[in-house]
Write a structure and sequence with these properties.
Chain lengths: ~300, ~450
């Protein structure tokens, strides 16, 4: 752990790292320098404090020296071309990468000033605090009720059946699904529409009262109406949760997030307030991406 | 020409037809600006030619082969003078075999009536004729079919549909063969079973508690009445199968879980084939392992703790059989567990479930139908297994639930009933069919129960 903290301290001072130009284009602001991020990657009240994060799949690097703060009760959007490492980075935040044998994570990742990758750390407790919603709705092939009750049961959150009923009802209400399903809680979740399934997955995630919710392209399998509902839900949840959302839809990022982070080939190129990113980005590459010149 | 020689000939003609039709379709397509202007690709025209050449020829050939013998025999027998005409089925077969043997040169013509000799000559002549006709007819049909298909290689004809439809029929025919064979077996078993129940009352068979199928050869022999009570056999079968499944299901399932969830790739690639090898060991090897190693060991152990055990025991057979069927459970379960989508696993892990919780709550229910299939397969193997039981559990039809006693099973009794010289319609022989029928009903019932269980507990993902 000492070595990790040492890295963290060393890199607080970014200029110490040797600047390595990766892409050479003419304008000064079109160069990616490994380990530097233009804009405001840091926050006054960070929930996550991530320093010099590197991720490797076997030998090949997927995330190259990224430092970022994610603020408390903030909605931050990750955007960037396909394959740039958004999902990989997101999955570091609740250690879902652990189940991939060849995946290695280096650097210092702190959640409320506790090291995420401390070998002594209890992953079960971490994942109860940092929930996740996936790209494709993945309800368990159980009843709607059992889906939502799954997490609370595992973590022993309810002593009595009535407590569990309350948790289920509250979570479904928060996910805006209660009115649609209250009469068929015993029906199989796989019989719902895609949008309903995704909201069920969100309900399932909030049923264990996490502090952070990670969402990896939560709307990419949904139609516009279902998408609008999920976005509405994100807006409501942003009051009480820290939300990290990966999205390919620029409009979605613009609608739901406070800050936006632009990833490129494993680098974190720019982080800024969402308004700024979509009106006057600091970096040439960000601008190229949001104006649709590549991606 | 012999049927066996005609088959390759048809094949050769079909290949030639294929080649010719292929070339012709290209020639036809040439002036039109390439094969894309044909209704179907050249392959389909060629395949159609080959099919039209081979299928009618094969049908004619098989029909001919099926009826050739009967027709010739009738002609030959019909030509016999009235005093030699057979009066009964037995006589007919006797005289036919005489004729055949004379024709084949195995019987000296001096020992049989002159009419039989001339009938034998006639037989030879008819056979030669038939063979000639057959060859000419089949080759003609093959060539005609091919020629017709060849002439129909025309750009506006859609050969693809013809070929697809024909293939569908061929596949259907193959499936039908399997089904019809099963139906045939079932019916013949039912038929013999009914005959058996004509000799032994069904109630005695189903509810009798003693099994000793030795029937008397002569009426004055002692102990002449056989006893055909099936209950001891059934309890024996159930006892041994239950012991085997008690060994195989937990071991197999847990090793499947280990293989699919915990083992590293390299460990898995070694362990899985090794486990599967267990099913490949010949059962007779398991048999003597059970009889020579396990059974004495169990007897000594039982005696050491003061229990009485016979040197052949249901326990020994069951344990060894259990080892043998582990791979049926483990291999199939491992496959279906692996087939559960990764997203379900991730969903559970992301909620903070541990690996074993995920296994128990999500993966297992989703994989249940496949796991059940594996267990069923193992159970039918256990019920049908004979060799291990003969060697390790014995032949004595004891009605007991004590695993340390020697017992016998349905399959073992079928073997002992049918080995040795038997009168085919004695109660003893027919009993084998009745036992077979019971076995069949038993496995069928097992299948239905399993299906019910799966329906009730399965969690379907899509
Ligand atoms: N399990 C894995 N094994 C090996 N390499 C992987 C694995 N998962 C991702 N990668 C590699 O890591 C890089 C980043 O992938 P990642 O999935 O994080 O991209 P992404 O930004 O989420 O892309 P998308 O927008 O298409 O989802 C890619 O080059 C990918 O090939
Ligand atoms: Mg992704």
């Amino acid at each position: 752990m000492n070595s990790m903290n040492a890295t963290a301290i060393r890199t607080e001072n970014m200029s110490e790292k040797v600047a390595k130009p990766v892409i050479n284009e003419q304008p000064e602001n079109a160069v990616i320098t490994e380990g530097t991020t233009v804009g405001q990657p840091f926050s006054d009240d960070p929930k996550f404090k991530l320093r010099n994060v590197e991720v490797f799949y076997g030998e090949s690097p997927a995330i190259k020296n990224i430092s970022l703060d994610i603020g408390r009760n903030e909605v931050i959007a990750f955007i960037g071309p396909s394959g740039c490492g958004k999902s990989t980075f997101l999955r570091c935040l609740n250690r879902m990468n652990d189940s991939i044998d060849i995946c290695q994570v280096k650097g210092s990742l702190m959640l409320d000033d506790q090291d995420l990758y401390d070998p002594k750390r209890d992953v079960v407790e971490l994942r109860a605090r940092v929930g996740m919603v996936f790209q494709k709705p993945n309800p368990f092939p159980k009843s709607i009720y059992d889906n939502v009750a799954y997490g609370p049961r595992i973590h022993g959150l309810a002593n009595r059946k009535s407590d569990l009923d309350d948790i289920v009802e509250n979570s479904l209400r928060k996910a805006g699904l209660w009115d649609e399903v209250k009469d068929r809680l015993d029906a199989s979740a796989t019989g719902m529409s895609g949008g309903q399934q995704q909201r069920l997955c969100i309900a399932r995630a909030i049923a264990v009262s996490p502090e952070v919710i990670l969402m990896d392209e939560p709307c990419s399998a949904l139609d516009p109406i279902a998408t609008a509902k999920v976005e509405e839900l994100i807006a409501e949840m942003s009051e009480s949760y820290t939300i990290v959302i990966v999205t390919h839809s620029m409009q979605q990022a613009a609608r739901v997030s406070d800050r936006t982070a632009y990833f490129h080939l494993g680098h974190l190129v720019e982080v800024n307030d969402t308004d700024k990113v979509f009106t006057a980005p600091d970096h040439q590459l960000t601008e190229s991406y949001i104006t649709g010149r590549f991606g | 020409m012999q049927t066996a020689n005609l088959l390759p000939l048809i094949l050769v003609i079909a290949v030639i037809a294929y080649g010719l039709a292929y070339m012709r379709s290209r020639t036809v397509a040439g002036p039109m600006g390439g094969i894309r202007n044909l209704k179907a690709l050249p392959f389909y025209y060629a395949a159609r030619a080959a099919l039209w050449c081979a299928i009618p020829a094969l049908i004619v050939l098989s029909v001919w082969a099926a009826f050739e013998g009967k027709v010739i025999q009738n002609l030959v027998v019909g030509s016999l003078p009235t005093e030699l005409l057979p009066q009964s089925a037995g006589e007919a077969s006797l005289i036919m075999s005489q004729i055949n043997n004379v024709a084949a040169g195995k019987l000296n013509p001096d020992f049989v009536p002159a009419d039989v000799v001339s009938a034998a000559d006639k037989l030879g002549a008819l056979k030669a004729q038939s063979s000639q006709f057959k060859t000419v007819l089949v080759v003609l049909i093959a060539v005609l079919g091919a020629a017709f298909a060849w002439s129909r290689v025309q750009p506006q004809i859609n050969a693809r549909e013809n070929v697809e439809r024909t293939l569908r029929w061929i596949f259907f025919a193959c499936a039908a063969v399997a089904v019809l064979t099963t139906v045939g077996i079932v019916f013949s078993v039912i038929f013999e079973t009914v005959r058996f129940f004509g000799k032994v009352p069904i109630t005695e068979f189903l509810f009798g508690t003693s099994w000793s199928p030795q029937t008397a050869l002569r009426a004055d022999q002692v102990g002449s009445d056989g006893a055909f009570g099936i209950i001891p056999l059934f309890t024996g079968t159930l006892l041994i199968s239950a012991i085997a499944l008690l060994v195989a299901v937990p071991t197999g399932l847990l090793s499947a879980v280990y293989l699919s969830e915990y083992a590293s790739k390299s460990a898995r690639s070694v362990i899985k084939p090794l486990l599967e090898m267990l099913a490949g060991v010949p059962t007779v090897v398991y048999g003597f392992f059970a009889a020579l190693t396990v059974a004495p060991f169990i007897r000594d152990l039982a005696e050491a703790v003061g229990l009485e055990a016979s040197s052949q025991s249901a326990l020994a057979a069951g344990l060894v059989m259990g080892i043998m069927i582990i791979p049926f459970v483990s291999s199939l379960s491992d496959d279906v567990i692996n087939a559960v989508p990764r997203t379900l696993r991730d969903g559970s892990l992301a909620l903070g479930a541990t690996q074993s919780e995920t296994m128990k709550n999500v993966i297992f229910p989703a994989a249940l139908p496949g796991i059940m299939g594996g267990i069923l397969l193992a159970a039918s193997r256990a019920i049908g297994e004979t060799m291990i039981v003969v060697m390790a559990a014995g032949l004595a039809a004891n009605l007991t639930a004590n695993p340390l006693d020697s017992v016998t099973t349905v399959t073992v009794q079928i073997v002992t009933l049918l080995t040795g010289d038997q009168e085919f319609d004695s109660a003893k022989t027919l009993a084998a069919f009745a036992l077979g029928m019971m076995l069949f009903i038993m496995t069928l019932a097992l299948n239905m129960i399993a299906l019910k269980v799966v329906r009730k507990y399965r969690e379907q993902y899509d």
